[in-house]
Amino acid sequence: MASVKIFDTTLxxxxxxxxxxxxxxxxxxxxxxxAKMKVNVIEAGFPISSDGDFNAVxxxxxxxxxxxxxxxxxxxxxxxxxxxxxxxxxxxxxxxxFIASSPIHLEYKLQMTEDEVLNNAVEAVKHAAxxxxxxxxxxxDASRSDIDFLARLFEAVIEAGAKVINIPDTVGYSVPSxxxxxxxxxxxxxxxxxxxxxxxxxxxxxxLAVANSLAAIENGATQVEVSxxxxxxxxxxxxxxxxxxxxxxxxxxYNLDITQxxxxxxxxxxxxxxxxxxxxxxxxxIVGANAFAHEAGIHQDGVIKERTTYExxxxxxxxxxxxxxxxxxxxxxxxxxxxxxxxxxELDEESFxxxxxxxxxxxxxxxxxxxxxxxxxxxxxxxxxEKIYELEYISVLTGKGLLPTATVRLKxxxxxxxxxACNGDGPVDAIFQTINELTGxxxxxxxxxxxxxxxxxxxxxxxAFIAAEIDxxxxxxxxxxxxxxxxxxxxxxxxxxxYLVYMNNK
Length: 506
Description:
Double Stranded RNA Binding Domain
């Protein structure tokens, strides 16, 4: 049975979402989870754009196996050289070059003729071919390009060595029937198209990215470019989880083999949401909080009698499991390691000990521990990076008629520092101002702060999300604790630590 390649661009196009900044360690954690899901290609970044992006692509290339790793480059020799330097140590490296092809881009952005674009593209592919034969070529804004020029352009770059031809709907302009016809026309008009794979990259400006991608697959596309949770420029990209589950659920229609491990979807979605600070709306397809929820009495009755009356997918298919765990304060390391093995989590010994200590602390506070509790704790251990500051102690005094007072003790590279602040608009503000004073970082603008209950009951685990603007960039932090003031402080410190890591990688 034929299959479609899944090319994930969360780490490149996804990171271009307004306000998102991922440090290399976060990119590596996401890339490892993508590899567990068995996507075919990970586009790890745009190496020429910054040293930080270069380092992130290189880190992914050196530490993730079982998947192709791609780096993006404009049709410029310097870009291509930098891209190859970043991915050369990957198990299967790919160079992805692009140039615009639409009349509006040629006239206003590039100020080039069609022939100049074609020659530039051919030279770029030939230059990349010195390094690898795994070359992808993208015609930016292809959906608004002249079809005859596209065919001529694709024929030339395939002859020069491109093995993948990408047809992007860069601005989300197409509708499904039109885009499907375009794929068919490219196949018919490009004489040597059988020598290359056809890929598509659809944006969601009209809410049609997934529909357009599926229409392309029906008309011969063999690779689809996606991002986790659909994040990306403007309204985002075709969502990985929606594409994969559409093909999986409707195998009767598409007749395609699904090679991805769908049970990794929920964990991957959560990891990306936490790392980027971009929360999911409750009714988000596949991974939203309500995706498998039923409130209407008729629906509940139907599901109780037969799940498939109102559910076309089983929650377990994407890795959701609502069962309670028989784990508590008397559980030992072996029981916890069995859980990690069962759910395919990998922690080194140091991370496991940190996680085990936090688990025991939670077990002392909470009677019933669920999967959600443990997975929320694990989110804090999924990636490791240099933590300049660690929270040692926190105390908050507040109440009606009282001036909010926070006492915070941090560890900085082995040294203990402590301060108290009697100001702020409330207890959380007092905590943040005290941390600012301890770290010497006064110019932090809080962009977003929220607390979610990730588990049920009066002893529910609270998850704090922070998005803070520091030096014009957004850094996120999150932490799960039963004490929401502690979670808030830990999340705020995580955002500061990410900023410091980012600055060290620049």
